[in-house]
Amino acid sequence: MAAANESRVLRFFGVEPAEVEQAAAGLAGRCGLAHVESRAQGAETLLALTAPPRALHRAGERLRRAFAGGLYGAGGDTLADCTAQALVGRDRLLACADPEALALLASRLEGRPGISRVFDFGAGSCLDAALMAKVDARVSRAPAQDPLADKLCRMQAAVHLTHADLVAGVLARDGDTLVLLARRKGCWVCSVPPEGSPALWLLDMIRRAAKRLPQAKGVRYCRAGRAHGAARRWRTRLLLALLLAAAVGLVLALQATGGDLSALPQLLRSLAGASQPPAHSGAIFL
C-alpha cells in the first residue's frame, strides 16, 4: 500500500526564487513529488512540497545540498529562530558595534533559548561607554577616508576589543542601508534597498557565518586591513620615491665632486654665482 502524501514547507533566504523553482521542478519527477508550489516574500522564498514522506526526505536533502546556505529552515521556523540556534549550537559570541545594529537584533533574538550566553545585547559592546571610547581612539589613529572605510575600521576595532567571534554593524546611506558583519579576518557587507529588510539580511548573514556557510549573492567580503590599505600604500610609495631621489642625488653629488662631498658647498656656490650659464647648463651638473 502506497504511503499517503504529506506536505512540507521549506524556507529559503537570499536565494533567487527562479533558482528555487527550477531546482524543485527538476526534483518533481526524480523524487516523485505530487505537487510543488513556491512563493516569494522579499528576499525570502517559501517552497511547498507534497509527496510521500520518503520522497519529501529525498527532495529536502537534495535541496539542502543545492542551497547549502540559502535553505535555513522548514515549517514554522523563523530566521531569528535559526540564527539563534546557529549561534548557540556553534558557541559563537555576537556583539554590536553600534546602537543601530542592536536595535535590529535585540528584539528579534531576545527570549531565544540560550541566546543570552552568546549575545551580550550591547552590554559589553555598543552600550559600554568605556569600550566605545577605546574603539574611537583606535579609529582616530587611522587616516580618515570615506564613511564605509571608516566604518570597516570601526568594525575591526570592535572585534578586537570585545573579543567576540562576530560583530554586527549598520551604516545608513542615501538610497540604501549597509549591514555589516565583522570577524577577525575581515567583514561582510550587504547593501539593502529601502524596500528591503536590513534586520533579516543581518540575521541571515549571522546565521551563515556562525555555521560557516557561504554568504548570499550580493554580500561582499572585505579582508581586514584593506579599508585603509590604499592610504598606507600611498604613504609607502611616497617614502620609496623620496629615498630613491635622495640616493640619486647622493650619486650625482659624488660624481660632481669626485667623491669629496666636502667640496659640494663650494661647487654649489660657484654654480649659483655664474652670471651667464652656458647652454644646456642643466645637463652640466648631471
Taken from the alpha-carbon principal axes, the silhouette is elongated
Range of helix content? 40-55%
Structural class: alpha+beta
Largest sheet: 5 strands, mixed
Poorly predicted ranges? 227-232, 280-286
Order of helices and strands: EHEEHEHEHHHEEEHEHHH
Separate helix tally: 10
State the CATH architecture of the largest domain: Alpha-Beta Complex
Number of strands: 9
Q: Widest sheet: strand order? A: 5-6-7-8-9
Characteristic terms for this protein:
3 domains, alpha+beta, 286 residues, Maf protein, disordered C terminus, Alpha-Beta Plaits, five-stranded mixed β-sheet
Short summary:
The chain is 48% helix and 20% strand.
Structure description:
The chain is of the alpha+beta class and 286 residues long. The protein has 3 domains: 6-77, 2-Layer Sandwich (Alpha-Beta Plaits), CATH 3.30.70; 81-227, Alpha-Beta Complex (Maf protein); 230-285, no CATH class. 48% of the residues lie in helices and 20% in strands. It is built from 10 helices and 9 strands. The chain has helices at 17-31, 53-66, 79-90, 99-109, 129-141, 147-162, 198-210, 229-257, 264-273, 281-285; strands at 6-13, 35-41, 44-51, 71-74, 94-96, 166-173, 176-183, 186-192, 220-223. A hairpin with a 2-residue loop joins strand 6 (166-173) and strand 7. Helix 5 packs across helix 6 (147-162). The model is unreliable at 227-232 and 280-286 (pLDDT under 50).
